[in-house]
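Tutorial handout. Part one gives the primary structure; part two gives the three-dimensional structure as tokens.
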Amino acid sequence: MRNITRLAFLFLAALSLNLLTGTAAFAQQDEIRRLLTEQYEKADASGNVDLKMRLYMADAVLMPPDGTAVVGYQAVRNWHQATYARMSSQLSPTLDEVTMIGDWAFARGSWTGTITPKAGGEAKHETGKFVILLRRLPDGGSWRIAREMWNAQP
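Part two.
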């Protein structure tokens, strides 16, 4: 009888730990979803480089389509500054998948929206897809973009 009680206790303890861990994981996934949809979209729509750079790690790397890798915080900042100077965008991202592995996570999704050249010209409707790797900050909760790759649909 004692062994059954002990097994039942261990089972309930393991189940409780699993539920708590699962709840924490869902909260982390929600944070990642907000960062990559609401915060990302707000920064791009406003063309605010400072707001956008709050989303990135210091060692971030961008891998834009048909271009060379953009490595490091200052290079990523310069890339966004130049991009925001050339065009404005109203893009809506959709996340299809968020998977966390320890202090790393990856997100896969797509976007759709309008890109308008600031030098004049016609606005262009565009859709595309992306993969983003994120890393959790040492504070144990906040996530930032470490690597980002995307391309537009033909």
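Part three, for discussion. The radius of gyration is 20 Å. The longest helix spans residues 2-46.
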